[in-house]
Amino acid sequence: MQAGGDRELQAKNYLEKHRIMELLNYLTSALLFFRPEKPREYLISILERLRIAKITGVAFPFFMDHSNIVSMFEMMDTSEKGTISFARYREGLKTLGLLNEDEVLKDDGHVITLEKFRSEVCIHPASPQAFARKF
């Protein structure tokens, strides 16, 4: 039984070391935002751009326009109140690759509006390149 536990631990460590779950989360989010006609080709192009960004240091193109930001916010605003909780806000930034696991955001106790969410997404233009360097 020990060998099975070792394999499971090795798999867990591998996924964490190479940030596989973070990458899959990012790829899934991109698919849901852009809904390309050819999803496999789209995913391949994202992976190629990530590889190039990592090798060359050239910024990874991150196209997040107003409608994409609004769509993501609306998905998180399940109560349709026009606000989201701080926890959802933090998860949204992580999903977009705009917040590192080590980064700490201060919860001031206020709910997050679309305007606040949009401003945070827009002030992180270099983050996708940082995201590419993680892999």
From TrEMBL:
Name-wise, this protein is EF-hand calcium-binding domain-containing protein 10 isoform X2
Q: Which InterPro entries match?
A: DD_EFCAB10, EF-hand-dom_pair, EF_EFCAB10_C, EF_hand_dom, EFC10
Q: Which CDD domains match?
A: DD_EFCAB10
Domain called EF-hand: residue spans: 64-99
User: Matching Pfam families, A to Z?
Assistant: EF_EFCAB10_C (PF24548)
| Source organism, top-level taxon | Eukaryota
Q: Where are the transmembrane segments?
A: none
- GO molecular function per UniProt: calcium ion binding
